[in-house]
Amino acid sequence: MKLLELLRIFRDEVDDTAGDASARRWSDAEALEYANDAQSEACRRARLLVDSSTPAICQLAVPAGASLVALDARVIFVRRARFTGSQPLARMTLQDMDSHNPYWSDTPPGRPFAFIPDLQTGKLAVYPPSDAARTLHLTVVREPLLDMNDLQDTPEIAPRYHRSLRYWMMVRAYGKQDSEANDPKKAASAEVLFAREFGAPSSAIDEAWIAREQLPGDGTY
Predict the structure, then answer these.
(1) Are 39 and 146 in contact (CB under 8 A)?
(2) pLDDT in tens, 50-103
(3) Beta bridge partners of 62
(4) Cα-based distances in Å from 211 to 68, 78, 122, 145, 196
(5) At 100, phi and psi to the nearest 5?
(6) Percent of the chain with pLDDT over 70
(7) Which SS3 state, helix, strand or coil, does residue 158 take?
(8) pTM of the entire predicted model
(9) C-alpha span between 120 and 151 (Å, rounded)
(10) Across-strand partners of 60?
């Protein structure tokens, strides 16, 4: 579905189809922002975008002697990490590391065998520091790569979910602080429909916990 069609469906749903743009309750700019926010919200709730191949996000250069690599801001969770030619690294939290070896941060460079997701915000740590320049390959859950701006743009999530994005757009639209647009009851009803498709809200505190504590196969990420 193109953005043009999604915006049309949204305006039909909220009965805001006046031919004259100045007569509409929600501007084109507002509707566009709602559409992009809806896709990001869907991705956060349902972990819809799993990526192992986008170079800028999933292939990170680790210089010799380095132990920290910056994660792209669109990454929600790191599911898997491995160096070229190596088996996947073990996931270790900062607490795990301190319990295992209180002096681990003084370990000299070697071939990394573990990654630590909670040592520094926005970065991934490898242990021990890499003794050679290597490429780290990640599998991540992320937000959309780009905002939709052109009417011919298509949401990045699977087409079967596109129509349901309108429900979050309605949540945003009916939450607008405007006497004609604001309707808490309709916003709440739309929120229920959105949650039915994409799940409960994914809060910052939950995401921070999962990014740190997730275990393979536990279903949280």
Answers:
(1) no
(2) 999 999 999 999 999 999 999 999 999 999 999 999 999 999 999 999 999 999
(3) 134
(4) 16, 7, 11, 20, 24
(5) -70, -45
(6) 97
(7) coil
(8) 0.91
(9) 39
(10) 136
